Amino acid sequence: MSYKIHFSNRGHAYTEDEIRIATDAMRSADPLTQGRFRNSFEEKFTSFLGNDRKCFALCNATAGLEIAAMLCRFQPGDEFIIPSHTFTASCYPFIKKGGTPVWADIDPETRVANAQTFARLISSRTRAIVVVHLYGFVADMPEIMELAEKHNLLVVEDSAQAIGAELSGRKAGTFGDFGIFSFHSHKNITTLGEGGMLAVKDPSLASLVPMLRHNGHCDFNFARQDYWLPAMGNVDLPELDGIPLMPNNFCLGEVECALGTALLDRINAINRDRRRRALAFIDGLQDYPEIVFHRVDSDRHIYHLLVGKAIGNIRDEFIRRMALNKGIQCVVQYYPLNRYDLYRKLGFGYADCPQGDDLFDNMISFPFHQWMTEEQFAYMLQSAREVLNEIRQR
Ligand SMILES: Cc1ncc(COP(=O)(O)O)c(C=O)c1O
Predict the structure, then answer these.
(1) Ligand 1 contacts CB of residue 199 (under 6 A)
(2) Residue 87 in contact with ligand 1 by CB distance below 6 A
(3) Closest by Cα among 324, 265, 257, 319 to 291
(4) Bridge partner list, 280
(5) Which CATH code of 3.90.1010.10, 3.90.1150.10, 3.40.190.10, 1.10.530.10 fits the domain covering 267-393?
(6) Domain boundaries, the chain
(7) How far away, in angstroms, is 9 Cα from ligand 1 center?
(8) For residue 232, what pLDDT is reported?
(9) Where does 120-231 have alpha helices with state H?
(10) Which of 141, 172, 218, 333: CA 20 to 30 A from 300?
(11) What is the pLDDT of residues 154-176, one digit of tens each?
(12) At 1, is the pLDDT very low, low, confident or very high (cuts 50, 70, 90)?
């Protein structure tokens, strides 16, 4: 069916300047990967985060999560605690690298896990906590960090949806040991559909990332008389605590890096604009308690998504009427991970997460793309009101 407003997987449009920057890089970049545009992007991202992390551009956030998982050094039996209410890429890289997931519930108001929901799952086997700043809202990081420090746990911040969100003047992704950001097509900024950034706190762990990212490439440990002998360069196995780590090719191309650098100039304006619209929509539905939103009028929420929870078992009827009568494609997101076949087949099919389940069973995710016009927005708000009025009268 064709919609008046579809749920697009493209988050934003590019300005003519950004298109020019990308095409200029297409003409001039040599090499087309691992060159000066990557260096500029990483430097600018480091300063965007506040200059106390080393940042690495990657082909996507999942690659960043996988490198973070390698650097967690899971031993057999080690667990990591993670909300079941998240996107699958938050989790499976940690299983791939030897961790066992333990599912945390979310706070019903903020829709992310907090120190209490993590704390009750900590055991002697816990090695790491994976915090997900889902929807663009920064979780309670000071409390979570206090908990992690008390139990000597690593903290990974999946900030894929929260680039630029802040709590107490600190950016999402700069509280824990690792911060991971996504520039996927749907995100608040995208580097042509794929892209990611990994921010690492510990300089000794950060020093391993270039080889882990790029095939184990490194210099020979002897001085060469001829630049071509014995070859262009060496490859080696980076080691952590004496354990060798296999490398990957997780690089991001130069055109994407040039574009990402330019987009950083606009991210705060994009985030502000998204929040302005989200709040206008939420306030426009304040007379309709049938849908509950998480309203945050501060930099702590950058509204990557606009998500409501339906009260009174009306979710499916609301979405159906919005689709069929109004041509607006709302969707349901974040199937609880333990319910997916992948996790069930691995033996992780059980979770005691009533709040996450309740949100999933009642959630409505509205189309919310930066390129939507103000008219489309007004139409979506008016349509939601009309549909709720219809449901009241049925
Ligand atoms: C919460 C979360 N984590 C991880 C990812 C993975 O990001 P990427 O597609 O850049 O690998 C995404 C989205 O795509 C996400 O929303």
Answers:
(1) no
(2) yes
(3) 319
(4) none
(5) 3.90.1150.10
(6) 16-263, 267-393
(7) 13
(8) 87
(9) 141-151, 203-206, 209-213
(10) 333
(11) 999 999 999 999 999 999 999 99
(12) confident
